[in-house]
Amino acid sequence: SLVLRLLAARADALVERAAEVTARPVVVATALLRDGAVLAAQRTRPPELAGRWELPGGRVERGETESDAVVRELREELGAEVRATGRLGTDLPLADVLLRVHTAELAPGSPEPEPLEHAALQWVDAAGVPELDWVPADRAVAADLVALLRDE
Ligand code: 523
Fold first, then answer.
1. What count of other Cβ atoms lies within 10 Å of the Cβ of residue 19?
2. How much is the average pLDDT of 135-148?
3. For residues 126 and 150, what is the distance between their CA atoms, to the nearest angstrom?
4. Ligand 1 — pocket residues by CB below 6 A?
5. Residue 32 · residue 145 · CB < 8 Å
6. How confident is the model over 56-68, as a mean pLDDT?
7. pLDDT per position as a tens digit, 84-133
């Protein structure tokens, strides 16, 4: 009957909405690559991560693709213009988010990256990657990062 079909459609909409609400938000981390090196950024917060190094990035906002988030976060955090070029490694489940690593390159004419929201920045080559004090989640992609840098 019409009533049943309307109820079924309403139920489908509710299930879809529930999936949206319970899905873990995605945080993108960006391996910004140049001349066989990756840009590492030193966190200032929270206290347990401060001083340790990460691939810059942040939470994907509603209505934004992951590539959009990479471009926006690096503009906000580094004052740089980048292009997202691909993915690296597997998704890393953190406490309440999913960390997904993207690769990127500086756009032609981009300003040089600056630590607008980090304590410091450094370009790290394949030999330097394993030596750095990465935040725990980023440490998990170090081997993939080394392989990528060696291929470049
Ligand atoms: N990480 C992480 N590695 C990494 C990034 C960019 C983020 O382990 N390379 C973690 C740290 C936080 C969470 O992901 O637990 C959110 O990252 P954050 O704080 O850099 O992103 P924001 O500022 O967009 O998100 P909120 O602080 O949650 O607002």
1. 9
2. 96
3. 6
4. 27, 29, 54-55, 57-59, 94, 97, 99, 135, 137-138
5. no
6. 97
7. 999 999 999 998 899 999 999 999 999 999 999 999 999 999 999 999 99
pLDDT the model gives residue 21? 67
Tokens of 140: 């998990």
- Report the predicted TM-score, pTM, of the whole model to 2 decimal places: 0.87
Cα separation, 103 vs 105, in Å, equals 7
Give how far Cα 47 sits from Cα of 44, 52, 55, 73, 100, Å. 7, 10, 18, 21, 23
- Which amino acid is present at 94? L
Which residue's alpha carbon is at the smallest distance from atom 24 of ligand 1? 58
| Over residues 14-32, mean pLDDT | 86
For residue 2, pLDDT beyond 80: yes
Q: Which segments of the chain does DSSP mark as H helices, in order?
A: 2-22, 66-78, 136-139, 142-151
Buried b (16+ CB within 10 A) or exposed e, 23-45: eeebbbbbbbbeeebbbbbbbee
Q: What are phi and psi of 106, to 5 degrees?
A: -70, 135
Nearest atom in ligand 1 to the alpha carbon of residue 54 is 9
**Looking at ligand 1, which atom is closest to the CA of residue 59?**
24
Query: Is the pLDDT assigned to residue 138 strictly greater than 90?
Result: yes
